[in-house]
């Protein structure tokens, strides 16, 4: 049998498979590539022609993915102009992508009478039992390694790299300030800060973010990081709670706008109903923090019926969990890496909190689109639950695709006129009268402030992506808030002209500083750039809402409303909004909590201007002009700007909803051209 096999790069091979089952589609295979090293692939079809190799083995008893997953990957490939099998693999946990690597071991012989340099190599290997061949060549003189191999002192062996049973997590072993002082490398400093922000991080997460294994290992060796084995809670040790009385509901697409607690109660009821009928439920989370929180809560009620697919699950358990999808009567919880589980049937697909970032960092694919495609392929009901719908979902509710169930907001809203201060006199009085109450301060900016260049007469921008640079007083640097690896400098100088920068506006650090000056250090005061749905406060204060409203972006108004709605959902008593840019008409609608009318007006504007969600917006960035190519092959209607500082042309094109012109794919293959799907 000749099978078509796709690897993680998206490339396909035609392989001879002698031991394949009658229907091999979706099975994982191991095979030898052209280099002679073993690779992992997924069978995506049958074929005819000349074989490019043969399948070595099928490591699983069941298919890793089903035909529905392959269909969805194709749909996504068409929609995002990408290779379907590359998209497919990007959503498969890394523990399934096995590969072969060359290792070096010590030969079973007498190792006495070796010279000093050779002994160093021997001791290095002895401590680690086996070492990747490439690592050894990087660390020691390659001529010495070849000599030791030729004399039979060390052995070179090729082995499959298969994940460990346990999951390793990394955390700081020393205080952050001391850790940063002990390293010079910018990349290692960013690695330390990343781990510090998340407390405990798996190696898979670090590698996904682009950090290097060699840097992780160096920080471990120097005692800056510590490694520990993370074990999930033993289910048998958890006494199960009695689920609340079942409230029967009719199957159908729903949108639930509510508090976190109500959303969780709804989910418990839904899962109980589906489990009672022996049906599967899939719950997708853009936020890992919410995934872990909900998973732990559901385990209290449903025990081993809760199946989690996440980075905190050790590989052996993740392997077992993945193939449980072939059975029925479970609730599966995961993020992007769980969308291609091989379900035998699926009753409900739930997207939990679309107000979080639903775009996958690796390729920009939207989790909401995947949830919709899953519901279509499995004929499942589709349920969204969030603090409040995003604009696109509000339109779907209007069209009758979702039945909307919403919980009223409890808190009162106050809007205080702000000029340039961090806290207005009116807001100060408001807080002072409630100084003992739990209050959350929302600041739409990281760091201390923006960085303004008097010579350029503008805010300093990131040379890589054009984002406004942020000044951090705590770190003593300016950096790109979008992607920290883009730009970072200890020198307070403009990256464009070299002139001295000045502070302008304020961010989280300065807000903390000012509030502390006014009210001293208080445990009942909290600060954030993004309110967490599962938290509650008596009062929430948005200090600089104008930061969103002043951005020249067609989504700025929508983002402002989303922030207001998220903040309002976690406020029990009061929400204060400081702003100078809200119109009197909008102010009245916000104070009366008439958000439907605000969304209606935004939709009307978008429709008139042919903007999403009534069109597809594509941005093409290129270091050279591509006007003629676009006019000839794509569209004559585009808006073009040249960003002199970044030396990049930006082309903005609007298309009707649906598939984009195939000619855009040609741009993806061009050098120094990047396509961004809004």
From TrEMBL:
Name the record gives this protein: Primosomal protein N
PANTHER family registered for this protein in UniProt: PRIMOSOMAL PROTEIN N
GO biological process: DNA recombination; DNA replication initiation; double-strand break repair
Signal peptide: none
Organismal lineage: Bacteria, Pseudomonadati, Aquificota, Aquificia, Aquificales
Organism for this UniProt entry: Aquifex aeolicus (strain VF5)
GO molecular function: 3'-5' DNA helicase activity; ATP binding; DNA binding
UniProt keywords, alphabetically: ATP-binding, DNA-binding, Nucleotide-binding
